[in-house]
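Ticket #634: bound-state structure for iron/sulfur cluster.
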Amino acid sequence: MRNFVTCFFPRGSKLLTIVLIMILFGVISAAPLPAEYRFPRPEFKSEYEIPKTEVPAATPSIYEYLDLFVLVVLLSIVSYLVLKRRSRLGIFIISIFSLIYLGFLRRGCICPIGSIQNVTLAIFDSGYIIPLTVIGFFLLPLIYTLLFGRSFCAGVCPFGALQDLVILRPVKLPAWLSQTLGLFPYVYLGTAVLFTATGSGFLICRFDPFVEIFRFGSRVEMLIFGGILLIIGIFIARPYCRFLCPYSVLLRLFSRFAIWHGTITPAECVNCKLCHDSCPVDAILPSTPQAEPESRSRGVKRLMLLLILIPLLTGGGAVLGSQLGHVMSYLNSDVRLQTQINRENTTGTENYSEDSSFFRESRQTEEQLAEQVATTKADFYTGGFLLGGFIALVFALKLISLSLWRKRDEYEIDKAQCVSCGRCFEYCPVEAQHKRAKDD
Amino acid sequence: MAEADKEKNNNLSRRDFLRYGFRAIIGLGALSVAGHTLFSSKSHDMVWQLDPDKCIQCGRCATRCVLSPSAVKCVHAFAICGYCDLCSGYFRQPPFALDTAAENRLCPTSAIKRTYVEDPYYEYTIDQSLCIGCGKCVKGCGSFGNGSLFLQVMHDRCVNCNECSIAVTCPAKAYTRVPAHSPYLLKKAAEGSG
Ligand code: SF4
Ligand code: SF4
Ligand code: SF4
Ligand code: SF4
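RESOLUTION: The complex was predicted; output attached.
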């Protein structure tokens, strides 16, 4: 309409245009209801006034900023408790608060773990506008981790807090097992990013084991999944954190380079071995014998071999991944729907599946769907290629890091694995001495 | 001894160097992702809403919400209602009788109240506390009437899941994220009436 008006007043005053538009709009809105309505609006003889359509107001977004504020405060307190106060009790109390507030009251949504997907979507889908608060949720824990280690996991993440509560009889896992299982978060992260980027949904939210507990929800499968994880968690501490959590991939990386990370002992380690059993997530590395267990040249040779293997493995993974990506695309609902519709169309059956009959009822056309599916499949192919390469690369790097031998004179924290829960602090006899000295 | 110490120092500094390098890389990486996303971000939140013009009343809104009863409920745009005596959103088709007996009504929870206005007009209001968002009335109204009844995600109830679990299965792709400051997609005519 604007074009229509301006074509009559090519260089005419803006005001005139606006007035004209307003008049036109006025005419339209004052006009009786369009004829498409079967039953015209009645002319009431009585005093009856047509009520307004009422819709409840949304919760003001103040809450989102409040949550962000709470997040910062909690992260700061936990970092202080880990690094300065070295207080397991303090961390525990804060984690209970986080569990209640971020978990049960704010119902665990939106969390930094899930925000990975929002960030991905913001990058790949130009139609999605990411709210500032979500970016805050994604970045703040990472920034704190780069500064102080995984304070977020220690006492802020409601998932971590819930799992931490049930660590009753932790057992040590054999190293090969925990190393292998520890690769799964990379696979999960990569797959979740692939699914988000291809518009196939938020896997992390869909397979979120604890949110149903926080919401007293009704998705039975997920309640069972969460329950099983918690039962396992009695013996194998924090199973979600160590073997599933996709956010932990980033946290591990950032924590490895943390500027100030918590330490087992406040002073010098006396190699008493007491702390080793106190860590529920096997993040304490014992000191090593003085000499390297094998000759240096053999080690170097193996390293060389592994370094050559990196590009081979990565390439192989990428090729395999692109094939897998094709298979995975059938997990996308559009692709599945189209397959179903095609099958029905070729067999000529009238016996439509629920999804297909709803689709036929809706305003979408089969051409639109086909177009959509073609792009989705192509995206899955490329995405699968990258995903396969990424996983293979992670695998290769893991092999290398396992084969490297590093001398340790003290019991050390594996900064990547440590969730800063603070359990080891009180096991250290040096700590006890320090405390006594302080008290005197 | 001094030799060994020196080597240790050298080793340390090399490791430190690596560490700082990595920190810088990570920091830069994080910053660029942050920058990119910040660039396209908005200060307001996004919430889920369904477009009533796309909805085909499949019934999944009632069952797939993480809340029970669902956060989706029926809304009435009075401004486009015909105030019909024989409301096709209220009565089962064909109606046995034009009375409010339960077996004649479409709504499974009797959430629609029918009040006499004047001859021959009746007003239909939704008791939101009873509505379960099944969309039966919406379908009825849309197929014979003006389509003044429609579904909306009620934002006093919706917990704004990161991924709405109804949106995932909505066969009409009716769900979108909308800015939190205008969280409803009312039927256009209903909006116009203000
Ligand atoms: S590892 Fe993941 S789930 Fe566990 S505490 Fe950290 S962020 Fe939470
Ligand atoms: S799921 Fe979609 S089509 Fe079905 S009732 Fe809800 S909005 Fe309508
Ligand atoms: S028929 Fe369904 S959607 Fe309509 S008012 Fe009743 S419960 Fe709500
Ligand atoms: S966002 Fe969650 S609570 Fe809201 S309508 Fe969707 S499923 Fe229900």
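RESOLUTION NOTES: The CA atoms of residues 48 and 174 of chain B lie 10 Å apart.
TICKET STATUS: resolved
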